[in-house]
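Example record used in the benchmark description.
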Amino acid sequence: MVNFLYPPRCAACGAPFDISTSFRVCDACLDRTEPIPEPQCEICATPLESSVSGESRCTRSIAHGPAFRPARTLARYRSSAEDEPGMLPALLDRHKYSLDQAAGRALAEYLDGQFPFNASDYDLVVPIPLHRRRLGSRGCNQAAPPAGEVAHRTGLPPDAASVVRSPYTPPQTAPDHDDRRRNVARAFAVRRPASIRDRRVLLVDDVMTRGATDDEGARMIVRAGAISVGLFTLARVL
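Model output (structure tokens):
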């Protein structure tokens, strides 16, 4: 009845669906997503130019040593084709900036149980937190739907309350990695350390750009006593 009154369309490209569908992303959009090419850095999943030398880490991971390890992602944020923007930017931006909760459900559908990590390696799923000021303007933490879906499909307990973002920091716009790190320095806090201590935490975010925000969040979790912090994102900016 809802589909009859509001004919369903793809949440990414707007293509019409059959009225009987229960899907929110069309096959054409799903087919346009691109996985991260191999070989990848064993820590941050950055594509390596070659594995001939035997190097398994990228230069940034060697230099900065992020607190999360490993990081794994499903796909490139943008298509490698110049004339093809890809499905994920449209879907993620719609979810993040337009208060469209249907897009959030579409993101959860996009996961479809595709996890490039072993659930048995973790004890807890934590979405990267959003400051309450930005949460008020957006209406939803963009990391919450994928984190909830990961928890649901893996059976791992979710925890969206123990880690918070405070104080407020400006959006990450600087291209330089060091500037991004300074912008989010001490931007996170663990208000319930007992829930984190001695746990293997899977941190979930929607998009990883330079990794500075996720790195800082992981550092605070480790300082609170976590055994380890892995990172899972829907997409990666390359």
